[in-house]
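Work package 3, deliverable 3.1, input record:
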Amino acid sequence: MRPYNFSAGPAVMPDDVLHQAAAEMLDWHGSGMGVMEMSHRGKEFGQIYAEAEADLRELLAVPANFKLLFMQGGGLAENAIVPLNLSRGQTADFVVTGSWSQKSAQEAAKYCTSHVAANTKANGYTTLANPASWQLSTQPAYVHICSNETINGVEYHELPDLKALGCDAPLVIDFSSHVASRPVDWTRVGLAFGGAQKNLGPAGLTLVAVREDLLDRALPICPSALNYRTVADNQSMYNTPATYSIYIAGLVFKWLKAQGGIAAMEARNMAKAKLLYETLDGSSLYINRVAQDCRSRMNVPFYLRDESLNEAFLAGARERHLLQLKGHKSVGGMRASIYNAMPLEGVQALVNYLREFESQHA
Amino acid sequence: MRPYNFSAGPAVMPDDVLHQAAAEMLDWHGSGMGVMEMSHRGKEFGQIYAEAEADLRELLAVPANFKLLFMQGGGLAENAIVPLNLSRGQTADFVVTGSWSQKSAQEAAKYCTSHVAANTKANGYTTLANPASWQLSTQPAYVHICSNETINGVEYHELPDLKALGCDAPLVIDFSSHVASRPVDWTRVGLAFGGAQKNLGPAGLTLVAVREDLLDRALPICPSALNYRTVADNQSMYNTPATYSIYIAGLVFKWLKAQGGIAAMEARNMAKAKLLYETLDGSSLYINRVAQDCRSRMNVPFYLRDESLNEAFLAGARERHLLQLKGHKSVGGMRASIYNAMPLEGVQALVNYLREFESQHA
């Protein structure tokens, strides 16, 4: 059995997917070619691409008026690509609830007026701001949130409803670290983007779902390869896409369907998160500072009250085959990322170790 | 034995590399993790990255005053990224010798004055323009060439010497489709970029080699993730890099070293190209229109004088396990791409088929 890998991303992949990828490495379906070796314009890769897109559309119930784009550069590149495509050089609003949305607000200022409508930094990014309290601009080009903050472990359990706030602007969500972990309410979303390296596949692939009416707003300085209209009109093949990564993501999509789809994953993810948070909350050694109503089901940061035990904790974890539990360098402590590919057994093994370590250091 | 795959890119990979990648898919070097699953900040991937960079630097004899960057988006993205980083919004010069340099000249016009110093379109992109005939600007920010045109099959056998032309500007080369096929004369180069999907590894990875004195010229509108200084200062990890693709490229670099390095590859590539061009030139059925002194050693476009035989030619090739020989849609005909990973035996098999088909249709 492989160790349990709690990396925040790139992150654990389903064993079944990796086995299949290894088996097909030199010969995909009798074609005589590995997927890495195929022209992106050929019929073999065309089939891989079409199936990946259709499976993802089905899994996430993406409406017909949204385009699915397979781009490159991850969330940090999208922090520029979104305002290049959507801001029209006007004002965009940002709700800052952690490291990622903060970076998004900062990068956008190169291309438009970047207005911070709310900021939870004062409480250490441990809560979300109630949407009713957001100070939105009069007519923002869009409103940006990070729907799951990977570093701070804060997640919107429900997407905000801009219309209910009297705002007609499209909502942009960075769903990098919880995409495909739960359903998406597309009626509230104009654009969603996410790096693949947490829940979808290899690093270097970015998923963008964009409502068609938002495709034609790009600034003239937007690079052609990053222009949503150009990417959409060329089925993500204006430039050569990350073909192998799309293939791996496609295998993940088929694995998700075999698991019962996104609703089944959500139920499993809620059970995993509940087990871990209850263990942390019931302990006198560990602490998670995030408010109950916005705790991430994917990324669980926690601290040892006695931080001098950190190294001993991590060493013991490694001995028990529990890997990559060290917290992000910007916040310290520990972090357990429990994405789709982390089975309940992995969280149970972590919980067992948390209890064991606590009993040894009570 | 696998078929011989003449795809222009993504393209054939060395069997040894694919075998090793398959074997390590679920567990890299006893780490308990596949490479796709590793944090890019961890020591395991740190080792993979450091070895890949060092091996590439050794193979290509990259001088110490050049940074090697592992970026994303391929050559078409670099068509914007280069002027965003180097043009200062002034004038950049382009030598247009085929489809790729033409696209580069066009994209740059978004960010600077794009001056075409020479254009060989009038002769169907079958020659290069003598550098002495180039109409360079007075003080261009840089001079761009595509040192191997993948579609048109035109290659600079020697890089132009801008200093000898009285021009102090840095030379930018797009070496996507012949990188690592021969040595690079870095004394003549300021920046080189190339998509990985021909000679280095999977699509979605871009190699950039940039002289250090060119790192600080970016326009304020350059996205952070695409800013050479930012990428260089973060060892290509400002945003999450395409980790698995870097790993595969690293395996290719080790394979290249085992083959005897770049000088050995160049000798082999020259022998492969000689065999193929001599067969085409000695035929009354096939024709290659590119001038002798600038024929690409990597991409060999050719035509059947009787184009009604095209489908029969391709069908017969597939029967003989010779794949992806159809020419680019923009120029038609055939194309054999014979990158590093194509063995001499593959070219010999193609030559045998060319002769057989010709004898049947004489």
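The CA atoms of residues 97 and 120 of chain A lie 5 Å apart.
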